[in-house]
Design goal:
This protein has 424 residues and is α/β, with parallel strands linked by helices. It has 17 helices and 15 strands. Helix 5 packs across helix 6 and helix 8 packs parallel to helix 9.
Length: 424
């Protein structure tokens, strides 16, 4: 039976209309409607805009009504870079970093990603699923409705497939949309580091065996690689991404986080959906991104948690005309946050993005980075009714109140997936 819902009482409705990504000055255009409303039928938006116009729609007569009471409504956040499946935190490394040890120093001693790999390989699929399910509930609590999720803490066939299988199960067992990415090329696993040309051998294992198996089983949509100092070279990354593309997996790249390696140029060359991090990017890289369709996904939570002074140059990327997206980089070691509002705060204070730019980067541009821009990322007729409502008077207050979650309700496909007690 068809269900129709009229949502009114939005003091500010941020529509962010369109499916094209926003560049340059357009990034600050939120499509703000005062006293806005939405009409939703079976999880899809029929009309969005000023209340008087939406209420004139013929299907309003039979609709249930939900009054937002003067709150701010916007598209549900699209978190386009997370490492959802992991076994435990790396809190034991936190003290080491505070005492002065660098991320790379800890990694060389078997910490960092390899620490998470050891823990994940020993974990059961059931425990991984329980941890991820709890995290997804927290994503919803902070206004996120679509989550990209990478493998990468297994680094052997059995463990990587275990991660991706858990993600597949979670897709059908809970409400948030999960977009799966294969990141077998996260770092070289410990057992291959002991072999001559072990990194190349591991790349060939990925290219010839694991990537085809992931594609055959339909476990991922994207193929990612960490192309950086201490991880994989540009040549190795190209081999991994080419193998993925040959199997139908769209490229993504972890680029220029620890050093400027040329990974951004590789991402543009490979027509990657996105290249992420970009703290060490240069002007030539920015120009290449501006001319491309590859999204530049910025992850300020990582710099914040590691205590690094150099964030990605958001203002320069925006000025150049690149497609700038924003994500949490939720992971157990370098960005253990699933709060997109906190990511917005960091984008504003540390990268000098305006609140409007940060919101657009975390909604319509992030949806573009995941190939979902025709379904999510904006509030307009024909798109999913993915809505985040904040108990605030002005959208600028979302990043303004840093470290505080004012999300009042989260809706996925027209169904409430999280709401404060006062709403429920």
């Amino acid at each position: 039976m068809s269900q129709t819902l009229l949502i009114t009482g939005a003091a500010q409705l941020l529509t962010l209309g369109g499916s094209a990504p926003r560049r340059g000055k357009a990034l600050g255009n939120l499509g703000l409607v005062k006293d806005g409303a939405l009409l939703v039928r079976d999880g899809v938006i029929l009309a969005a805009g000023p209340r008087a116009k939406v209420e004139a729609h013929p299907e309003v007569r039979s609709a249930e009504k939900l009054d937002l009471g003067g709150r701010v409504a916007l598209p549900g956040f699209v978190d386009s870079h997370t490492h959802l499946i992991h076994a435990a935190s790396r809190a034991e490394e936190y003290d080491l970093r505070i005492a002065g040890a660098s991320y790379e120093e800890i990694a060389r001693k078997g910490g960092g990603i390899l620490n998470s790999v050891k823990k994940l390989r020993a974990a059961t699929a059931e425990s991984l699923k329980a941890r991820a399910r709890a995290a997804l509930a927290k994503f919803a609590e902070h206004g996120t409705t679509t989550v990209e999720a990478k493998s990468g803490y297994g680094l052997d066939a059995a463990s990587e497939l275990k991660i991706l299988a858990v993600q597949q199960e979670l897709k059908s067992e809970q409400s948030l949309e999960i977009v799966s990415t294969f990141l077998g090329a996260h770092v070289v696993p410990a057992e291959y580091r002991k072999k001559p040309k072990g990194a190349d051998a591991y790349v060939e294992l990925l290219a010839q065996q694991l990537i085809p198996e992931v594609a055959r089983r339909g476990l991922a949509e994207y193929c990612d690689v960490f192309c950086d100092r201490g991880a994989f070279s540009v040549q190795q990354a190209r081999r991994v991404l080419a193998a993925g593309r040959a199997c139908g997996l769209v490229p993504r790249v972890h680029a220029e986080q620890l050093a400027r390696t040329g990974a951004t140029q590789l991402a543009v060359e490979m027509h990657a959906a996105s290249c992420d991090h970009l703290e060490k990017i240069n002007r030539a890289d920015m120009r290449a991104l501006a001319k491309s369709q590859t999204a530049a996904t910025l992850l300020p939570g990582c710099c914040f948690h590691l205590g690094l002074p150099r964030y990605a140059p958001a203002r320069e990327l925006i000025a150049a005309g690149a497609i700038v997206a924003l994500a949490t980089d939720y992971n157990p070691g370098t960005s253990p946050t699933l709060s997109m509002p906190m990511a917005l705060s960091l984008a504003c204070t540390q990268m000098r993005m305006t609140p409007a730019e940060a919101i657009a980067a975390a909604t319509i541009n992030a949806a573009y980075a995941l190939g979902r821009q025709k379904r999510v990322g904006s509030l307009e007729a024909g798109k999913q009714a993915d809505v985040a409502v904040f108990d605030l008077d002005d959208y600028r207050e979302i990043p303004y109140y840093f470290g505080v979650n004012h999300c009042w309700m989260t809706m996925k496909r027209g169904r409430v997936v999280w709401g404060k007690e006062s709403f429920q």
